[in-house]
Amino acid sequence: MQTSTSDDRFPNHSEAPNHAGAAGLTVTERNDRYFLTRVVQAVLKPLKPRLMKPKKGSDEKTRLTATKRARRYCDVTENEVEGVWTYHITPKNSAERKEGTRTGYERRILYFGGGGWQMPPSEHHWAFCAELVRRLPDTRVTIISYPLAPKHPVSVAFPQIERVYKKLLMESTRLGERVIVAGDSSGGNIALCVVTWTLRFQEGETAKPPGAILAMSPTTDLRHEMEEIKKADKVDPIHTHGCIHDTAKTWCPGPVSDGSSSHEKPSSGRLDWSFEDPRVSPIQADLTYLVRHGVKVHGLTGSYDVLEPEAVAFRNKCKENGVRIESE
Residue 2: inside a domain, yes or no? Predict the structure, then answer.
């Protein structure tokens, strides 16, 4: 992840970067696939329906337990913000903070884990976030354990996520931290949605906007209507066209009127918690706000992924709107 470069990322796997197109857009493509990867994908493919079946959701707030590995290499602090559990992962026994000379970090990553909006962050998310803290200098990661469907569909969960996000942004602004909002799969969807949505009202906010978004294989369009998805379904070792339809319907069961028109602008488009709502599908968002506030986008997509066609469509929309983006 390159958060200090002039470009941001959204890849499409040949080693040399393709610099064609708008300035600021860098697409790195790689076509190699290791033999072992092919074997693993072949083994997993028959198990796809079982692998993607969500675990039984909890009726309680999603409180997590940090993995032993994460605690071995990092310090983990639990906090509750607006009724949502957050987990701050920091370098183990940070010397300068023990001496009381500093409170904030240079960089803070707010992370939303994927799981079809129905499963809490897994041990793999903990491992990834802990590794970011270990490898990136002066960085802390905050895992946001957001409310899960089906009990908390997007119309219920998103306003709460937005409140938590704003509080954490304000905290980082006060501490002088540069914020990156990150997520994978459905978590990448939330990262894109919450940033693009809140930027609409940034002029009236004290908190500084994030410097970048990191979206890994994000869900960008919950309609899932692109014909290319069916082709990707044949090679995706885990997801299916059917399963992403099901998870989309669970997160967004249908249009809902929430009476929040006072907070909306005429240019906001559909605001009924449908698939066309920018708070649900970031492909519907007004991406010019990213340009206006200097928010870069880093992205990662995989060719053997049913979510890739829509992620590429989102990348292309970013390019059309002049967003500084680097994709791989």
Answer: no
